[in-house]
Design brief:
Number of helices: 24
Radius of gyration: 33 Å
Structural class: mainly alpha
Distance between the termini: 72 Å
Shape: globular
Largest sheet: 3 strands, antiparallel
Strand content: 5-15%
Number of strands: 15
Length: 611
């Protein structure tokens, strides 16, 4: 039998002797002031008014502490004898081969800190163990047990950190933030301390089921890191966690069955499906961070930079194609072989004359999307029908203001067309009449706007390695891609493969190049060899006629930029007009900043970025 611990009230009194405190035990607020400042206001005129409320509240704080001490002493009961923790010799069912810990019956003990001290003493007794003498599978079992202990202790640590932050006593040590206090207390780096606090808050406030699974050893800390990083950064994702079928419970069950790498891909898929608008925004922001520096040094060049997911995979695919198979006598490191591959790629480009006037190079990138995803993307795209103002009058093509991006969603044929029924592939009467009477040369719109409402809940397309593709990026890739139909049967059996097809056949592409001559973005004269054909997806969804009128030649750089910035392009009177998402025409005197120049060196003085 273990006697209940005795807490001396004198220790509480001593805590208040040098520092007057008013403490809300729910952890909402902590106000402190020194006794010297409270009793000697003339020594610090500014501090005295702040100290007086704390002095007045000190008796209440003391009585509250004494009451809590008495409650704690009364609640403590002698600890009962505990059964030993059993360790099975075969892998248990808890998670991917980890050895199951026996379910120990926790006594009605009042001091969990004492239990942690006992665990620490037990761990210390294992220090210096000659594990090589244990031998056999017992060492593997030891690793399984350590993994389970690490997971459970990680869950306990998160609960302790969350409690410490909420109580607020950490502020008595003079630290400004709980992260700074934790860094000082545990000798951790600033990043590690911030990560611990962030995870503790997430498990407490948003991921209760994950916390339970972590404390039970069913998921690892890496699974928690994935959820905190990918599933909590928007309000819509946090709300989705509460869904019964595809919420946190679903993700936790998947975490129990998947390793951290596979679970990361699954959560990214889940996030894109739950909040496609956020995924599109993240892709646009990532595009602005791309950079590459090539700096001359004393004995060579230094290369550094950062690429987004798609650009990185394009470069990686190209480099791997030049790496080839490593020969037996090749003693170069992987980094050295990649450097040689980059040089080979550059030489091939220059030797083959790929920068010629009529070369058209497309990314060798495979994107897999279901038919339902492509149909949803087409249905979510802006309408080619010129929109009208609220008074029914048409916008004037070429005016400095008028065609903002959302007008393509509410125009006839758009996903938010008031005259449309439940079926997004069924045109309203007004849209159908426009499609039937449209002739080449008539005014029309090429919109890059995508309605996130239509894409919500739709399975995202994927790259070759399973990385999910946001809807706006899929629209960009589909704009100048070859489409191949693959029909799958049971167990992913390929039943049929269609020939690669393009929306614009080669002869129409040549016609568009002959008409436009160069990139049609205002101020850019990039040659067709670095260009692609941009068009409207909705036009082909609605079975509109394929015509050179519905395509425009853009260089690679501006094709990317038009999609990422939701640029609306209007064809009227044989002229192209470009409008930002806020309705200002690019090239108009709107006072906005210009976009980055063309990366191939052609300066586009009239380009402008979205506000």
């Amino acid at each position: 039998m273990v006697a209940a611990p005795v807490v001396e009230e004198s220790a509480v009194e001593r805590a208040f002797a040098s520092l007057v405190e008013y403490l809300d035990f729910d952890g909402v607020r902590l106000v402190r002031a020194s006794v010297s400042r409270a009793t000697s206001p003339e020594s610090d005129d500014d501090a005295a008014p702040l100290a007086r409320p704390a002095v007045a509240a000190a008796p209440l704080a003391r009585s509250t502490v004494r009451a809590r001490v008495r409650e704690s002493s009364a609640a403590c009961t002698p600890a009962v004898e505990r059964p030993a923790v059993s360790r099975t010799s075969t892998p248990g069912p808890q998670s991917r081969g980890a050895t199951a810990l026996g379910a120990a019956v926790r006594p009605a003990a009042c001091d969990p800190v004492a239990e942690l001290e006992a665990m620490l003493a037990a761990a210390a007794s294992l220090s210096g163990t000659p594990w090589h003498e244990v031998g056999g599978r017992r060492v593997h079992e030891a690793l399984d047990l350590l993994e389970q202990l690490d997971r459970r202790l990680t869950g306990l640590r998160a609960g302790v950190v969350a409690t410490i932050e909420a109580e607020g006593l950490w502020a008595l040590d003079g630290q400004r933030t709980v992260q700074a206090w934790l860094r000082e207390r545990t000798d951790a780096t600033a990043g590690a301390a911030s990560r611990q606090v962030r995870h503790a808050r997430a498990l407490r406030d948003h991921l209760p089921l994950t916390r339970q699974a972590l404390e039970a050893g069913e998921v690892s800390g890496e699974h928690v890191t994935v959820l905190v990083r990918e599933a909590l950064h928007t309000d819509r994702l946090r709300a989705q966690l509460g869904e019964e079928h595809v919420g946190e419970a679903f993700l936790v069950e998947q975490a129990k069955a998947l390793d951290a790498a596979a679970f990361t891909k699954l959560v990214k898929h889940w996030a894109v499906s739950a909040d496609p608008e956020s995924a599109d925004r993240a892709w646009r922001e990532a595009g602005t961070k791309e950079q590459l520096t090539l700096s001359r040094t004393l004995d060579g060049y230094h290369l550094a930079g950062w690429l987004d997911e798609v650009s990185g995979q394009l470069v990686d695919t190209a480099l791997r194609s030049h790496l080839g198979r490593k020969s037996k006598d090749d003693d170069r490191t992987s980094a050295q072989r990649r450097a040689a591959a980059l040089t080979s790629l550059a030489r091939q480009s220059l030797d083959a004359g790929l920068q010629g006037a009529h070369s058209r190079i497309r990314p060798h990138l495979t994107v897999t999307a279901s038919l339902e995803t492509l149909r949803a993307l087409a249905a979510a795209s802006g309408s080619p029908v010129p929109p009208r103002r609220s008074d029914g009058t048409p916008h004037e093509a070429g005016a400095d203001f008028g065609f903002w991006s959302d007008t393509a969603l509410t125009a006839p044929g758009g996903p938010r067309d008031p005259g449309r029924g439940e079926d997004l592939f069924e045109l309203s009467g007004e849209a159908r009449r426009w499609m039937e009477t449209w002739q080449p040369g008539d005014e029309h719109v090429i919109s890059t706007t995508i309605d996130p409402r239509v894409m919500t809940g739709v399975e995202p397309a994927t790259l070759e390695d399973g990385t999910p593709v946001p809807p706006a990026l899929l629209a960009r890739l589909a704009c100048e891609s070859g489409l191949s139909r693959v029909v799958f049967g049971p167990d992913s059996t390929v039943l049929d493969v269609g020939r690669e097809q393009r929306i614009f056949p080669a002869h129409m592409t040549r016609a568009i190049i002959a008409r436009d001559g160069h990139c049609q973005f205002p101020g850019c004269d990039e040659a067709p060899g670095f260009g692609e054909i941009h068009h409207s997806l909705q036009w082909y969804r609605d079975q509109g006629p394929t015509s050179v009128e519905t395509g425009i030649l853009l260089c690679w750089h501006h094709h990317d930029w038009v999609h990422s910035q939701n640029i609306t392009i209007v064809r009227s009177g044989g002229q192209w007009h470009f409008y930002r998402r806020n309705g200002w025409r690019i090239g108009a005197e709107s006072g906005e900043d210009d976009p980055p120049p063309n990366p191939t060196g052609q300066v586009c003085p009239l380009e402008a970025s979205s506000s």
